[in-house]
Amino acid sequence: MTAENQILAILSPDVLQQLEPHLTSVTLNQGDVVYRPGEPLSYIYFPIDCLFSIIVTMSDGSTAEVGIVGNRDMLGINAFMGNIVITQTQYLVQIAGSAKRIDAQIVRTEFERNEELREVLLRYTQAFLVQVSQTAACNSLHVLEQRLARWLLGTRERINSNTIPLTQEFIAIMLGVRRAGVTLAAQKLQERKLIQYRRGNVQILNQVGLEAFACECFKTIQAEYDRLLGERLENQS
Questions:
Q1: Residue 218 pLDDT > 90
Q2: Helix, strand, or coil (residue 21)
Q3: CATH of 143-214, one of 1.10.10.10, 1.10.760.10, 2.40.10.10, 3.40.50.720
Q4: Predicted TM-score of the model (pTM)
Q5: How far apart are CA 137 and CA 107, in angstroms?
Q6: What pLDDT, in 10s, does the model give residues 65-77?
Q7: What b/e sequence results for 55-84 when a residue is b if at least 16 CB atoms lie within 10 Å of its CB, and e otherwise?
């Protein structure tokens, strides 16, 4: 299957035709910050094979990821929710790759006048809120090895690859823990032959086993995305 954004893929040809002239392809590098707190949201991004992290930074400089945005998602729901200024959060490119970008005002205009687009984007917003709330619960209630497994599975699902090009230091920042904790958690997953970590790349060796080891959160989030937006295209007949 050709890589594509799942939200754009479920829009009808008529609605997509209204957006396509305004969509441009962009290539993003790991570590790029597309928006910082207090900045106006000028563009909405529909990831193809890149991955964004939505990060909250505390007053002491500590950071934690509160959501991931990949090819099941869109970045910039503020634009059609009535607030174009980003507050509190930072939008960071976690995994390099490509995306479709569109002027936020165009989406807002189409959102207000097009019922189908409005319904899809509101359903996506509901799914994303499930991801954020489930992640918050997971970070509070589940052990680090399970959280790491959930995070790897969510990332894999959004880039369509078993190879995740990230260092343990970067993963530690995303999970809001020390690198030593990620090292120990990764070792436990390697001992079970679920993953292999080598030189900045995590390779998922056994997806089924990783899902069984992870907490319930990955499947809960996945089920809500499927319910609200339809199953992933790669799983459809």
A1: yes
A2: helix
A3: 1.10.10.10
A4: 0.91
A5: 32
A6: 889 999 999 999 9
A7: beeeeeeeebbbbbbbbbbbbbbbbbeeeb
